[in-house]
Amino acid sequence: MKDLHKIVAPLLEWYDGHARILPWREMPAPYRVWVSEIMLQQTRVEAVKPYFERFIQALPTIQDLAEAPEDKLLKLWEGLGYYNRVRNMQKAAKILVEKYQGEMPQDYDSILALPGIGSYTAGAIASIAFGMRRPAVDGNVLRVLSRLEKSYDDILKQSVRKHFEKEILEVIPGERAGDFNQSLIELGAIVCVPNGTPKCMECPLAKLCAAHADGVELELPKKTPPARRKMEDITVLVLVSDNKAALHKREEKGLLAGLYELPNLKGHRNREEVLTFVKEQGLSPIRIQELPPAKHIFSHIEWHMAGYAVKVEEPQNGNLRTKEFFFAEKEEMERKYSIPSAFSAYMRYFREKY
Ligand code: ADE
């Protein structure tokens, strides 16, 4: 095992001069640290900032999060993706209200036991909010340490993460645990960057870095390539009646569970098939227009989308609710229904045209 004691002082000194000013750093209350770390798991800092501010304003306490209606919660998350993250946060918030008076407990194992909180997030909350000596090893830190030690171990393996967590635990300074963890994360985010050339000239650890000494920074870290994504063809419908478009609530399980979507069919369909489908829903099409294809990439699936806009007659009885769909106005869509960004190409068409 490596002795990392030498990195502590230069890292903290660098952090004091270079850390970005971020809203959750200025006021590192446990709830704020938690929300920010969950948002930052799949999203860049710059993109997270406005979401963070809006979320905290709408739901200022753990109790508010526990009690928020699901649609409101999903709306606040719209655009961040991986919606199970916020669903798990709400589950955890309910537990915190029931068991801990709505506060985050000052105990690492209790934090780690909460839904959606793994060793990284538990370590971040424990160290940044409570000053506890716990490691917070995320992808940034794994990259920094792999390069520093010139380790070719696969950073996607649990055993490799555990090994690095152990090394870090040995050296976390008692008086600045949170800053030390954040200095490693920050170094990975802005100096020892993941894409493109790392800025070794600016790195406080350059002299200690084994990968830099041998000029192999760009070979590291090692990751097993992810499994190939599954390709799915679908046909998305912008079904419009009286300036409203049809929405459908997805099933409560699986991809984008429980979110709202534009009606869609498996496979790429032609005009006739689409019109048949629309009529089967009890609607009367007036005209159909083909829209440009679009693509959306999820972590394990790729959607290749064909699209049609179909104008339908307003149903006789004014009932804009078929078995499958209901029609909503633009304004309602903005305010109430969380529509995943996978549909944004076709939602943009609806917004601009109607
Ligand atoms: N990425 C993940 N956690 C972070 C943090 N606390 N600060 C900056 N970037 C991060």
General description of the model:
The protein is an alpha+beta fold and 354 residues long. The chain has two domains: 5-219, Orthogonal Bundle (Endonuclease III, domain 1), CATH 1.10.340; 230-353, Alpha-Beta Complex (Nucleoside Triphosphate Pyrophosphohydrolase). It is built from 16 helices and seven strands. It has helices at 5-18, 23-26, 30-40, 45-58, 62-67, 70-77, 84-100, 108-112, 119-130, 139-148, 158-171, 177-190, 210-214, 271-280, 330-335, 344-353; strands at 230-241, 244-249, 260-261, 264-266, 285-297, 301-312, 326-328. Strands 1, 2, 3, 4, 5, 6 and 7 form a seven-stranded mixed beta sheet that branches. The longest helix has 17 residues, at 84-100. The chain is elongated, with a radius of gyration of 24 Å. The relative contact order is 0.11. Bound molecules: adenine. The site of adenine has 8 residues, from helix 3 and helix 12.
Briefly summarize what is shown.
The protein folds into two domains: 5-219, Hypothetical protein, domain 2 (Endonuclease III, domain 1, Orthogonal Bundle); 230-353, Nucleoside Triphosphate Pyrophosphohydrolase, CATH 3.90.79.10. The protein is 45% helix and 14% strand. It contains 16 helices and seven strands.
